[in-house]
Amino acid sequence: MKKFVVERNLPGAANMSPEELRKLSKTSNEAVARIGNSYSWVQSYITEDKIYCVHIAESEKEVREHARLGRFPINTISEVKVIIDPSTASTA
Questions:
Q1: How far apart are CA 57 and CA 61, in angstroms?
Q2: Contact of 47 with 7, CB cutoff 8 Å
Q3: What is the per-residue pLDDT for 74?
Q4: pLDDT category, 92, cuts 50, 70, 90?
Q5: Coil/strand/helix, residue 84
Q6: How many Cα atoms sit within 13 Å of 36 on the Cβ side?
Q7: pLDDT digits (tens, 9 = 90+) for 41-64
Q8: pTM
Q9: d(CA 38, CA 43)
Q10: How many whole angstroms from its chain centre is CA 65?
Q11: pLDDT tens readout for residues 6-44
Q12: What are the distances in angstroms from CA 52 to CA 12, 23, 90, 92?
């Protein structure tokens, strides 16, 4: 499985109400369920006018299918090649 970061331009994203966020999450969960066990939405980061979503999927095609089913915009999809964190500095 591959990990993808999806950038979605959504003006005013940071001003979404808790109810709007619940609906957005529910729609995403329903799309994930339709795709099946090979797909996972990990989490999303909301900034002022964008949402960055982390997904685990077999291919970019599945990520695009998730967006189509949920009617979510996609501005970019990037496959994660390497993950680093603070502990990477101390790895031998």
A1: 9
A2: no
A3: 96
A4: low
A5: coil
A6: 3
A7: 999 999 999 999 999 999 999 999
A8: 0.91
A9: 16
A10: 12
A11: 999 999 999 999 999 999 999 999 999 999 888 999 999
A12: 14, 17, 28, 32
Q: Do residues 14 and 71 make contact, with C-beta atoms less than 8 angstroms apart?
A: no
Alpha-carbon torsion, ordered 54, 55, 58, 64, to 10 deg: -100
Structure tokens at 21: 């966020």
2-81 folds as Alpha-Beta Plaits (3.30.70)
Kindly state the tokens that stand for 29: 């969960």
C-beta atoms surrounding 79 within 10 Å? 12
Q: Name every residue whose Cβ is closer than 8 Å to that of residue 46 and which is 6 or more positions away in sequence.
A: 13, 14, 16
Both tokens of 89, joined, read: 């500095």
pLDDT value, residue 37: 85
Nearest alpha carbon to residue 36 among 15, 67, 57: 57
Instruction: List the one residue out of 70, 6, 5, 66 whose CA is nearest residue 35.
Output: 66
Mean pLDDT across 68-85: 96
Residue ranges of the alpha helices (H) in 1-92? 18-35, 60-70
